[in-house]
Design a protein that fits this description.
By secondary structure, the protein is an alpha+beta fold. The protein is built from eight helices and twelve strands.
Length: about 280
């Protein structure tokens, strides 16, 4: 018996189109390896069963060729393509590490593109989504970025390789009694990180009142949450490249922000961690 076809995450049409996570026009700007292989692993943790590992290691092919079947051809070749074409002039210098100043209008276009990519990434694995349908449709119809999205663009000095890291969790804040219990909860907190040339793109999202990843994990000596936030936009103009310039350890630290935040008090939940990288 064949499986029922999935519905497009942005409308009611069948999801009959595959979306490149890293767009095709971008491939020539990204690091190229002579014998490209990549790892795609997922780790699911549940308090009752422990950790379950899924996915392949050392798979042939470059990581940036990954496609996700979550949208329809109408959305993919329509408003999604239009948004990407609008963002491309600003993404290109960011990828290359060239000097660029983003005003409110330009920064909002880039932030919409990042929000789109992160929402698509949520649907690369079943039962790990966070953004509800109403917010997905609002992005499509009005370009509205969910108000619980915090988006960062951070420069780094890693010369080779492509990485992707997504951590989603259904959290209950604990006191003497965990209420509600963590198991069975939908995902309500997530972080997503991916390398985009000379930029590390990072998203923190929390749908729990008074719970933010930023407040539970502060980065030092320079706080990227304060200096590298693209959205919500602050001020009239932001210039990249900007400090801090992360090394490999710094990239790993920011990408693991939610894992580190969960290690603190009053947080427990059912979690899924997805990692992909060249190697």
């Amino acid at each position: 018996m064949s499986r029922p076809q999935k519905q497009c995450i942005f409308c009611t049409n069948p999801a009959n189109s595959k979306e490149h996570f890293w767009p095709e026009w971008m491939h020539e700007l990204l690091p190229q390896l002579p014998d490209p292989r990549h790892n795609r692993k997922a780790y699911h943790y549940h308090p009752k069963v422990g950790t379950i590992e899924e996915g392949a290691s050392h798979r042939p092919g470059a990581l940036h060729t990954i496609k996700i079947r979550a949208v329809c051809a109408t959305c993919n070749t329509g408003w999604m393509r239009n948004l990407e074409e609008a963002a491309r002039p600003f993404l290109t210098p960011l990828i290359k590490g060239s000097l660029i100043a983003l005003g409110v209008e330009q920064g909002t276009i880039v932030a919409r593109w990042v929000a789109l990519k992160c929402i698509v990434a949520e649907h690369a694995s079943r039962d790990t989504t966070l953004t509800p349908e109403t917010d997905r449709f609002a992005l499509r119809d009005r370009g509205a970025i969910p108000d619980y999205f915090q988006i960062y663009l951070i420069n780094h000095n890693i010369k080779h390789g492509i990485r992707y890291n997504r951590h989603s969790v259904g959290i209950s804040l604990t006191g003497p009694v965990s209420n509600p219990p963590p198991w069975g909860r939908p995902k309500n907190v997530q972080s997503i990180s991916f390398l985009l040339g000379r930029i590390l793109v990072h998203l923190n999202a929390s749908r729990i009142e008074n719970y933010t990843i930023e407040s539970r994990y502060r980065t030092f000596p320079i706080n990227v949450w304060e200096t590298c936030r693209l959205w919500p936009f602050v001020g009239n103009n932001m210039v990249w490249p900007r400090r801090p310039l992360l090394d490999r350890g710094g990239v790993s630290s920011v990408s693991s922000a939610l894992e580190i935040a969960l290690s603190g008090p009053r947080s427990r939940g059912v979690t899924t961690l997805q990692r992909a990288r060249d190697g």
